[in-house]
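For concreteness, we quote verbatim a single protein encoded this way:
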Amino acid sequence: MSVALVSTGATAALARPMAADGVHAGVGALAVDLNDPVKKDIAMQLVSSAENSSLNWRAQFGYIEDIDDGRGYTGGIIGFCSGTHDMLELVEAYTTVSPGNVLAKYLPALRNVDGSDSHSGLDPNFTKDWKTAAKDQAFKNAQESERDRVYFNPAVSKAKSDGVRTLGQFIYYDAIVMHGDGSDGTSFGGIRKRALTKAKPPAQGGTETAWLNAFLDARKWAMQQEEAHSDTSRVDTAQRVFLNAGNFDLNTPLKWKVYGDSFQIS
């Protein structure tokens, strides 16, 4: 059943003139980017709509479950995974600022299960202790810091170097969140390489629309290679909708669907 969720958290964003989709819509054209606090909050809500079926991304610090995607436990505001190294790095960062925290005892197990879907050494109390840790502001801060370091900052930097505006920066961010910032065929680097066979980014003389469409096509292909990510609605009925509307600055109001659920930010 489709549910409509509405956020007014981005109402502080003033409508800004939308630059034409010219050949050289490069870095110099970026009056505001995804680092803007309002735009960044929009990005967090968009990702949360797909990852947690909710716009309230701040309610996800304590989220944790095994979603049977081969990555072990998935938890927190950006889906840190016990099998993909980022959950280990998160708990290490948390332990650096809060030695003896409730998750510190799981560090040996997290190192052992890294790269697998195993729960060895984590069950039966890891999920309970994760939820306990999520009440600690230091753990929340660590999640936001690691999100930015591993996903958000690299995505925005790469997007700006390719000359794309706020929407394109979000498209890169969402791709890195799901696929990782690697170079194999289904990671961000491989997706970008595949897109380059069809179009050029604005920084190389291409148009923003053609480039982002090529990138989204390559992203869809990467998603379809894995059963757990084969539903491509976060591209088809969200990111592509914004792109088709020419909303390169990711201005509100925004309406989209993910996995059949309807959302809007007014």
